[in-house]
Amino acid sequence: MRTCVLAAVAVVVVAGAARADDGKDVRDLAALYAKAAKDKDRAGLERLLRPDYHGARVPVGEVEGKRELTRAEAVALWTGLGQKHAGLSFTTARVRLYGATAVETGSLTVTIGQRGGPSAHIFNDVGYTRVWVKGDAGWQLAHESY
Fold first, then answer.
1. Whether residue 73 has pLDDT greater than 80
2. Cα separation of 130 and 128, whole Å?
3. Domain DUF4440: where (predicted)?
4. CA 110/CA 115 separation, integer angstroms
5. What is the pLDDT of residue 137?
């Protein structure tokens, strides 16, 4: 009986540690996503976004106002030559884990200059929700909505 209890405690401790590592992994990937967007890193964005990625109401770029974005459109948005990020800051508020799915909530603050002029738009603390899925390629962003 004592062996069974110790084994059960060990399983709970290991599972808790794995969940904590997954939460940290998702937070780290969220930071990498912000860096890839700011640096216009096409390869980094393509690694982080699932092939079936879906974005909704992304508040910046030349597709502003478009309700739905595919992976290719999101990569084009963040790497587009007409997009100049004067300031870009993602803040992760919370990560909740549901097995191989993680839900990240946070906010985006961005200052951008549009092509053809120095005008800047400032979005301050725009809330977002992201859904990360852990698959064969590790954690990847499946959906984000602002």
1. yes
2. 7
3. 26-141
4. 16
5. 94
- Count CA atoms closer than 13 A to 39's CA, side-chain side: 11
Taking the C-alpha atoms of residue 137 and residue 133, their distance in angstroms, rounded to an integer, is 10
Fold for domain 2-145? Nuclear Transport Factor 2; Chain: A, (3.10.450)
- 14 in Cβ contact with 44 (< 8 Å): no
Count of CB atoms within 10 A of residue 91's CB? 13
Q: Are 139 and 25 in contact (CB under 8 A)?
A: yes
* Single pTM value for the model: 0.77
Query: Could you state, in order of their start, the residue ranges of all structural domains in the chain?
Result: 2-145
pLDDT at 72 over 60: yes
Joined tokens for residue 50: 């699932």
- CA distance linking residue 128 with residue 93, whole number of Å: 10
Give every CB contact of residue 46 below 8 A, 6+ residues apart in sequence.
71, 75
Those residues with Cβ within 8 angstroms of residue 13's Cβ, 6 or more apart along the chain or in another chain: none
Amino acid at 91: T
